[in-house]
Amino acid sequence: MENWVSVFSTTEEFVAERIKEVLTDSGIPAVVLNQRDSSYKTFGDINVMVNKEDREKAEQVIKAYNDRK
């Protein structure tokens, strides 16, 4: 995962999955990295990760998606 960077962070798993889907539909491979504590759901984040070279494009896609809402 050393070539992957976080482009989106949330505490809601369904939001992370939706952002991953938006990125994937735009041709950007993405994964969800859940770092939430399994016992205490209030600790930790869920990150959407992309390859370093896709970071700028991913950020543009996420911004355009959020602007549509």
Summarize the SSE layout with pairings.
Blueprint: E1 4-10, H1 13-25, E2 30-34, E3 46-51, H2 55-68
Antiparallel strand pairs: 1-3, 2-3
Protein name: DUF2007 domain-containing protein
InterPro entries: DUF2007 (IPR018551), N-reg_PII-like_a/b (IPR011322)
Pfam families: DUF2007 (PF09413)
What can you see in these coordinates?
The chain is of the alpha+beta class. Helices cover 39% and strands 26% of the residues. It has a single domain (4-68), classed as Hypothetical protein rpa1041 (Alpha-Beta Plaits, 2-Layer Sandwich). The relative contact order is 0.27. The mean pLDDT is 91.
Number of domains: 1
Q: Give a count of the beta strands, DSSP E runs of length 2 or more.
A: 3
Q: What is the strand content?
A: 25-35%
The chain-level mean pLDDT equals: 91
What is the CATH C-level name?
Alpha Beta
Portion of residues within helices: 25-40%
Write the CATH fold name. Alpha-Beta Plaits
Q: Quickly give the structural class.
A: alpha+beta
Distance between the termini: 31 Å
Radius of gyration, in angstroms, nearest whole number: 12 Å
CATH superfamily: Hypothetical protein rpa1041
Characterize the overall form: globular
Domain DUF2007: 4-64
Organism: Butyricimonas hominis
InterPro entries: DUF2007 (IPR018551), N-reg_PII-like_a/b (IPR011322)
Protein name: DUF2007 domain-containing protein
Characteristics:
Alpha-Beta Plaits; about 25% strand; three-stranded antiparallel beta sheet; about 70 residues; alpha+beta; globular
Summarize the structure.
This protein is an alpha+beta fold. It contains two helices and three strands; from the N terminus they run E-H-E-E-H. The radius of gyration is 12 Å and the shape is globular.
